[in-house]
Design a protein that fits this description.
- The chain has 248 residues and is α/β, with parallel strands linked by helices.
- It has 2 domains: 26-148, Response regulator (Rossmann fold, 3-Layer(aba) Sandwich); 171-247, Arc Repressor Mutant, subunit A (Orthogonal Bundle), CATH 1.10.10.10.
- Helices cover 43% and strands 11% of the residues.
- The chain is built from 10 helices and 5 strands.
- Strands 2-1-3-4-5 form a 5-stranded parallel beta sheet, sandwiched between helices.
- Helix 2 runs parallel beside helix 3 and helix 7 packs across helix 9 (210-224).
- The protein is globular and about 50 Å long.
- Residues 1-17 and 165-174 have low confidence and may be disordered.
Length: 248
């Protein structure tokens, strides 16, 4: 797409279309309807080596337009905004630029809007009062293809909004035939992941090396067409691999 240099929100030449290695700078767009939030985050990120803020937007529609031209690595986006909110913007951005990672901003630890964005492919969420170091760490994590929600937070989030998931009394396999692509071990690891365990905890429980868990998890994501472990957890709940009532 065209990237006009006369757009005040777009800084030409600074966006990185495809990061080939960890040494490439991470391009970031900040999306929030509060200018002070954007300014504060920009000040923090501009002090960090290897991260460049390539633009800002005050709502989802502006963010979608800007992402189409700047093609950033990460979008840090408020979930609750007037007009096109963060949920709809997440849906549209991932459809248009699937390589771009979405990091959701929320005021509440357990936010129904944040959960909706996760189900659409966001790579995690952070609170608006996040410490500067945690903001930077979260951006680097999602840029590297990881998720930033701690296993315990993932479990609480899913438990809090499990009423919105399908009825688990119905057989899962007919609605999710892709599960047949998984080996028994891969399915076991997916189930443990949905239970809120970290890679290290899964490895300990299954008596395997943590590197083995990472390898299996990578294959699970590839076979199921999922972006990261957050989507894997949501998928496992929706597919009925985990009885949400046993987690409460």
């Amino acid at each position: 797409m065209d990237r006009p240099g006369n757009d005040p929100d777009y800084q030409p030449g600074r966006a990185v279309t495809d990061r080939q290695s960890a040494s490439d700078p991470i391009s970031v767009i900040l999306v929030d309807d509060q200018p002070l939030i954007r300014k504060g985050f920009r000040m923090v990120l501009e002090e960090e080596e290897g991260i460049v803020v390539v633009g800002e937007a005050a709502d989802g529609a502006a963010a979608l337009d800007l992402v189409g031209r700047a093609r950033p690595d990460v979008v840090v986006m408020d979930v609750r905004m007037p007009g096109m909110d963060g949920i709809e913007a997440t849906r549209a951005i991932i459809a248009a630029e699937p390589r771009t990672r979405i990091l959701i901003l929320t005021t509440f630890d357990l936010d129904e809007y944040a959960f909706g964005a996760l189900r659409l492919g966001a790579s995690g969420f952070i609170l608006k009062d996040v410490l500067p170091s945690e903001l930077v760490r979260a951006i680097r994590a999602v840029a590297d293809g990881d998720a930033v929600i701690a296993p315990s937070a993932t479990r609480r989030l899913l438990d809090a909004f499990a009423h919105g998931l399908p009825d688990l009394q119905a057989p899962a396999e007919p609605a999710h035939p892709e599960l047949d692509l998984l080996t028994a071990r891969e399915r076991e690891i997916l189930t443990e992941l949905a239970g809120g365990l970290s890679n290290a905890e899964i490895a300990e429980r299954l008596f395997v090396a943590e590197a083995t868990v990472k390898t299996h998890l990578g294959r699970v994501l590839a076979k199921l067409g999922l972006r990261d472990r957050v989507q894997a957890v949501v998928y496992a709940y929706e597919a009925g691999l985990v009885d949400r009532r046993s987690r409460q």
